[in-house]
Amino acid sequence: MSLVENNEQLCPEAQEEIIERNLRQRVRERWAKIITFVSIIAIALGGLNDTMDALEKVYTLSLSQFTDIPSHNKLDRIYIRASEDVLEETFGAPVYIKKSMSGDFIRYYQDKRFVLSAVTRDGAISAFLVFPEEGFLPNTNEHSGGEFLLEQAFSAHEMVNDIRLNSSRSVSYYIEENSEGDFSNLYNSVAGYSEFLGPLDDNTKRLFDALSESMMLGDDVTKPAVALRDAITPNFYGYSILGLDVLESAILTLSEYRLITEQ
Model pTM? Predict the structure, then answer.
């Protein structure tokens, strides 16, 4: 059966997505058959304990290769006010460390499907940002933006406490904070857009520059901010009890992102 059967009316991008999804499903099914076959033979020949250990390793490898489950499980362990020890327990040693202007240490951890930056104080996680790789949709249900945070424009979320923007050669980003979400009594939700995850086209660059100019001159930023929020969709998110000052330092520059992800 054709992978695109009954989908002739879809756009090429949608057809490609369907094909990729079907291929991944077929690979999973083939792995399941292989694991079952190996299990039957191994059990028949004896050595059940060794077989189960081997199967567990194969299963873990299969999950990592063909699903996002391990990445989601790692993120589920990271939350505001959790012990900082959980970071290295979950991700191992940080791949990059730097110091903010306020003196906080920012530690970066890499997963196959995202980069996480975390700020800790007094032994607990005080703020963190998640920078997903293309195609990975983390669980944002607890965020003020909800399940579709990373799939709809910033303007879909009306409540905003604070915004920051930088437009320069080293890094261009927009970040905003609001006090809604499932745990708004404990911390604020953060959403942002960074060029290292989504290069700026000419129109977006103009919107960035317009808002940047208004902020520097002390003008009313309402109009340029609304225009930019209508035009872009968040490509990273996070949570914080520290405000945006520290989190601005936690946003990687393009050079830093390349350094981390190309190792």
Answer: 0.76
